[in-house]
Amino acid sequence: MIPTESYNCYEYFKNNTAAFGDYDAAIHFGHRIKRSALLSDIDRLAAYFKSAGLRRGDVYTVFLPTCVQSFVAFYALNKIGVIANIVHPLTPPELLKETMDAVGSKGVMLMDLLAKPYVDMLNFHNVPCVVCSNSDYVSPAAHPAFRGYELFASHASSGIKNALSYRAVIHRCPPSDGVHNNGSDIAVYLHGGGTTGKSKTIKLSSKALNELAYKTGKVEHHNTPGVECSMIVLPLFHAFGLGVSMHFSMCEGFCCIPVARFKPRKANELMREYKISFIVGVPNMYKKMFEQKNFEGKHLRNLELLFSGGDIVTEQFLDMFNSTIAKWGGKGRLFRGYGLTEVSSVCCANTYADFKRNSVGKPFYGMRVEIWDKDKKRLPANTVGEIAVSGSTLMEGYLNEPTSGVYTDDSGVRWVLTGDL
Fold first, then answer.
1. Contacts of residue 283, Cβ cutoff 8 Å, sequence gap at least 6
2. 78: pLDDT strictly greater than 70
3. Helix (H) and strand (E) counts in the chain
4. Which of 143, 192, 270, 394 is deepest in the core (most CB within 10 A)?
5. How big is the CA angle at 402 (ends 399 and 407), to the nearest 5 degrees?
6. What are 174-204's pLDDT values in tens digits?
């Protein structure tokens, strides 16, 4: 993977994959989407956003499940320097409006099948909307059936007054130029509990997300672009989902398979159907997949690298999971990692090269992890204290709280105090 330089996320994806040819970049309901087609849609959506008056530093809300349109939206907004405010797509209407107001969002992208509860709020405040549909990315043969169901099941979304369809805006404007080498700009707002448990809006730059992708690429894995697949289950409002599952996978040239709604049996079916070698998830997701009767089979040989984070995963489960992969001739393994949104998600993990049982592994390339006392002094090994993290993936801070979240030491090094012991 190329060095991050000062690229924004759009540039980093485009430049990383330029030499791979026109490979299959994504699969949606069985329909394969080429890199050229995906980039064309990103460029055209970016051009539409510019024509709608969005400018560098503005904010726009992505209110979508894990889907191709959410990928396109993130990179299109990033191309023109607009901050993507990514929000859980089942957030109640009042809280969605409150979140949008807090960040100054100038519009929202949402899915037609999920739009009904939000129509009144969107109309009352005259929020500009782009409405997406599953039929936006299906084969021509499947389109009539998908569209027919959507018209029946999501007729409420047609009641949004200030709305255009995703397909309409994609074809409205020809591609235009974006912002270049603005990696230090804020790329995304993510909403989390903060290191103190109080709800915060976390600001991540393109540079931080690109550095995360670059560091993940240092883990020993060699992907054949467009052949090996990444199953993207984690949502993009989750830093692990955005930074590793989606952005790393896109930059590495995986064929990305978004899963809008996780169902363990269906996830196993996807592994049987496609050559899935890379998965990022939480422990409960892997446990549910493992419990299904269709988990085992020769398809497990395709698995190469799997990460688990966000919660505790036991050594006993890791042993059972990995021994089952090995039983079917696979060499892949599920590894435990550690991180938090304030450092763009994962900052250390076990890998093939550096593995230790009952640990979260070593820090990623270029990251520093230390244990501090209450006076922010480093403690010796095997001493209980607060985990402090430093490196190029750190957040820029919390929105409207310029002095909180990041500590700068006497040497000018920036740290995040995680609140974890």
1. 308, 310, 311, 312, 313, 317
2. yes
3. 13, 21
4. 394
5. 115
6. 999 999 999 999 999 999 865 555 689 999 9
CA 178, 82, 412, 347: dihedral to nearest 10 degrees? -100
Backbone angles phi, psi at 310, to 5 degrees: 90, -15
Is residue 272 helix, strand or coil? Answer: helix
Query: Could you tell me the pLDDT band of residue 145, with boundaries at 50, 70 and 90?
Result: confident
Write the CB contacts of 366 (distance below 8 Å, at least 6 apart in sequence): 211, 215, 391, 392
Looking at beta carbons, which pairs linking 409-416 to residues 24 or more positions away fall under 8 Å? 409/376, 414/390, 415/388, 415/389, 415/390, 416/195, 416/340, 416/342, 416/343, 416/388, 416/389, 416/390
What pLDDT score does 155 carry?
Answer: 64
Question: By the 8 A CB rule, do 282 and 51 touch?
Answer: no
For 292, phi and psi rounded to 5 degrees? Answer: -75, 145
Cβ 304 vs Cβ 332: under 8 Å: yes
CB 107 within 8 A of CB 61: yes
What single-letter amino acid sits at 361? G
Decide if 304 contacts 276 (C-beta within 8 A). no
With 0-12 / 13-18 / 19 or more C-beta atoms within 10 angstroms meaning exposed / middle / buried, residue 294 is middle
C-alpha dihedral, 292 to 32 to 331 to 350, nearest 10°:
-90
* Helices (H), ranges, 88-130: 93-103, 119-124
Q: How far apart are alpha carbons 63 and 213 in whole angstroms?
A: 23
The three-point CA angle 62-68-70 to 5° equals 10
CA 53 – CA 17 distance, rounded (Å): 30
The CA–CA distances, whole Å, from 59 to 111, 126, 135, 192 equal: 19, 17, 27, 18
pTM: 0.95
Residues 13-30 pLDDT 10s: 999 999 999 999 999 999
DSSP for residue 401: B
SS3 state of residue 263: coil
Q: How far is residue 187 from each of residues 11, 202, 289, measured CA to CA in Å?
A: 12, 11, 33
* Coil, helix or strand at residue 414: strand
On average, the pLDDT of the chain sits at 94
What's the rounded mean pLDDT across residues 22-45?
A: 97
Chain segment 322-343, per-residue pLDDT in tens: 999 999 999 999 999 999 999 9
Calculate the alpha carbon distances from 177 to 49, 187, 192 in Å: 12, 18, 33
d(CA 152, CA 144) in angstroms, rounded, equals: 12
